[in-house]
Amino acid sequence: MPDQAVILLAEDREDDILLIRRAFEKGDIRNPLYVVRDGEEVVAYLKGEGRYSNRAEYPLPDLLLLDLKMPGMDGFDVLRWLRQQSDFGSLRVVVLTSSDRIQDVNVAYHLGANSFLVKPMDFQNVIELSKVLRDYWLQISKAPETSRAPRASESKNSGASR
To answer: Residue 61: how many CA atoms within 13 Å on its side-chain side?
Structure first.
């Protein structure tokens, strides 16, 4: 279900968070969108620590939209950490940043980003970008399996013979 795929947005700028939320609304993107504001929060969210310990309230994401320039643990640090984790090493990560420096592009891909997108300057292009994210990453592209608790329907079928 592409509309049920959870998106985690790691973004420290409130203006960008509001812009992305509005673009999702205007683009009719109904996916659950969770927001964390720095790299430490990304890690806590993914590990299910502290306020993120309730997986019913804070489910594991299917896609991480990652800003590079965040205070403290930045997006590069998150990528380094993420790709060392057996549970999250295959989580799809789209870098969504204002930087268009080729050095940032190269480092992000080297660290395991699946895509690198520069934030558009005008709202209409943000809407179009959000539709592309949905269409490609949540509908067309196949997601790898990540470690998560089995769904009720999966655990019922696990004892069935094939």
So the answer is: 30
Residue 155 has pLDDT above 80, yes or no: no
> pLDDT by residue (tens digit) across 82-107?
999 988 888 999 999 999 999 999 99
Residues linked to residue 35 through DSSP beta bridges, in sequence order: 9
Return the closest-CA partner of residue 117 out of 95, 140, 89, 136: 95
Assess contact for 61 and 8: CB atoms under 8 A.
Answer: yes
pLDDT at 14 over 70: yes
Instruction: Record the pTM.
Output: 0.85
Helix (H, G, I), strand (E, B) or coil at 140: helix
The CA-based diameter of the chain, rounded to the nearest angstrom, is 54
Q: For residue 62, give the amino acid letter.
A: D
Q: CB burial class (10 A; 0-12, 13-18, 19+) of residue 11?
A: buried
